[in-house]
Design brief:
Elements: H1 6-20, H2 25-107, H3 110-119
């Protein structure tokens, strides 16, 4: 975090010993250690929170991509189903027409067709 060399720490310790005094120095060192530990915990929590938020944002983006892909697939399937239904309706219509033509051809007997030809 901070770029402090060992020699700088020694100088700080000597100055602290002179300024604070030998009686209060252990208590101040413990307090500074506790504060440093709390600060490290706090920084770790902040890093974890930021990472959690970034993962959550990525998951939301992925969820939106999956939803859009699902919607696109659903629309594609629906258009295919509609095309098949139209083709089936056309085939049914053609079958009905063919059946009607067959019934009409069967209902006219050969004698009637000959008499119709003679009348012409």
């Amino acid at each position: 975090m901070f770029d402090i060399a060992f020699s700088e720490l020694v100088v700080i310790a000597i100055v602290a010993l002179i300024v604070i005094g030998p009686e209060k120095l252990p208590k101040v060192a413990r307090t500074l250690g506790a504060l440093t530990g709390r600060m490290q915990k706090y920084m770790t929590q902040i890093k974890e929170e930021v990472n959690r938020e970034s993962r959550f944002a990525e998951l939301q983006k992925l969820q939106e991509e999956i939803k859009s892909a699902g919607n696109a697939a659903q629309q594609s399937l629906q258009s295919t189903v509609n095309t098949i239904e139209q083709d089936m309706q056309i085939a049914d219509t053609e079958n009905n027409i063919a059946a009607t033509v067959d019934k009409t051809a069967e209902s006219t007997s050969p004698a009637e067709s000959n008499s119709n030809k003679e009348q012409l």
